[in-house]
Amino acid sequence: MDKYYNALINEALFTGEMLCAGYTQIRKANYAKRGTYFQAFTSLSTGIERIGKLCLILSYAIENNGNYPTNKYIKDSIGHDLVTIYNDVKKQNTKYGFQFQFLDNLDEKIHQDIIELLSRFGKGDRYSNIDLLVGSNNYDDPITVWYNKIDMDLYKRYISQKRKDTIELNARIINKITSQYTMVSHTAEDGTEINSMFDASLRTGINDAIAPYRQLIVFQIARYFVESLHELQYKIMKNNLFEIPSFSDVFRVFINDDSYMIKRKTLKII
């Protein structure tokens, strides 16, 4: 069983690192660092898919006397769709009666919007620019979708009117001071042009305000899957079903509450 044990711990370590990287990078992304969005989306979509598959593989092994599924089963029954993976993990959790310390599900709209975006990104939207160049109509720009669906929701939900007014006032002041000798030419996350210091400063102010909440919502998604994995681990070890490593040690950093995580800018598994 050593090779299976080592494969599980190595997969957990890799997955944890991807989730931490995505958490860290999503805070840094803005209209001037569009590549950082893709770094974050790549890490998060990969990390969530892999931890979801870890959960489903262990669930399969529980039901099949410690035997792991075949490659064909993984492709045909699990696949790469994150929405499907989440729904299957949720069904598994309900079946086993797992009790969580934090969120019992990720059914809230903003969680579902992020999971769907990351799923589409992993399946093809990451090539949105190339698709546009070659005349494909099957793409959505993931940065635009993130800005319109996620960032604007966060801005509306979490940022007070007083802070919104301050962000706009600061943008007007900066524009008044610098506009005479500053030229601005950028493209915003939603594809519109940024051609003034007011626009640039306003976008920066909005991004700075919502950045901690971006990370928090992403963390909540990762934490749900980590708790699912922990519950499976406990079930397997308690009933001495088969040998597995302690995933709790690898994913320890994800068992933190929201009030702590809203202040944390970076994440590492060790």
Low-confidence stretches: none
Got a strand count? 2
Strand order of the largest sheet: 1-2
Rg value: 21 Å
- Secondary structural class: mainly alpha
- What integer is the average pLDDT? 91
Largest sheet: 2 strands, antiparallel
Tell me the series of helices and strands, N- to C-terminal: HHHHHHHHEEHHH
User: Percentage of helical residues?
Assistant: 55-70%
What would the principal axes of the Cα set say about the shape?
elongated
- State which percent range the strand residues make up: under 5%
State the separation between the terminal residues, measured CA to CA: 26 Å
The total of helices stands at 11
Key terms:
270 residues, mainly alpha, two-stranded antiparallel sheet
Give an overview of the whole structure.
With 270 residues, the chain is an all-alpha fold. The protein is built from eleven helices and two strands. The chain has a domain of 184 residues. The chain has a two-stranded antiparallel sheet. A hairpin with a 5-residue loop joins strand 1 and strand 2. Helix 2 packs across helix 5.
